[in-house]
Amino acid sequence: MSAWQSATSGAARGASGWIPIRSLSPRHKPRILSHLLSLKPEDRYLRFGYPATDEQIERYVTGLKFDRDEIFGVFNRRLALVAMAHLAYSVDPQWATCAEFGVSVSSHQRSRGLGVRLFNHAVMHARNQGVSLLFIHALSENVAMLKIARRAGANVQRDGSESEAYLSLPEATLDSQLSGLMQEQMAELDYQLKSQAQQFRAWLATVQEIRQGVRDARHGLHKP
User: Fold this and answer.
1) Could you give the 3-state DSSP secondary structure of residue 210?
2) Does the pTM of the predicted model rise above 0.85?
3) Which end of the chain is less congested by CB atoms within 10 angstroms, N or C?
């Protein structure tokens, strides 16, 4: 087992349980925006490298290139986006096999290993897309992100308040491709089940409201 495989498998063992990670599309923009706007000021600062305002976050979401980059997310049972990652591919032909990784996790979802899971998922996806070098730009005080990168075997270089991490990725294998496909399919199934459950809850609430209205009406008819 290579150093990279040992590090990533060890990180995966550190976060128990399967986490459904789904690829996002333009129709998820409202949920992406809601997730990012809900981040605390200090989390916005760590994610974007500056104290991003609501307007700056809105411009970021508007400018997402779903046809070029990969955006992944984790949804809770009510289909609220609680964590997301952005895998941005280089637009420079000279660096065509390079990609940059960024991640954000809602504060109430911390300690679940979502950042590690999203990182590992992005690494596998990047490998399968022919990426050989993953780049992470983070504030030096973003200890959690830099820790994830170091554990994966990345070379981290610090320059004052900012740090850069570079992780060389091995070539894709049949196993990584099949694993990526299976995870996508399972995450899609999980999303559809949550969507159906949400629709059922909405229908049930409507039925209960109608029943309550009928009961109230009957009660009113029986009043002297």
Assistant:
1) helix
2) no
3) C
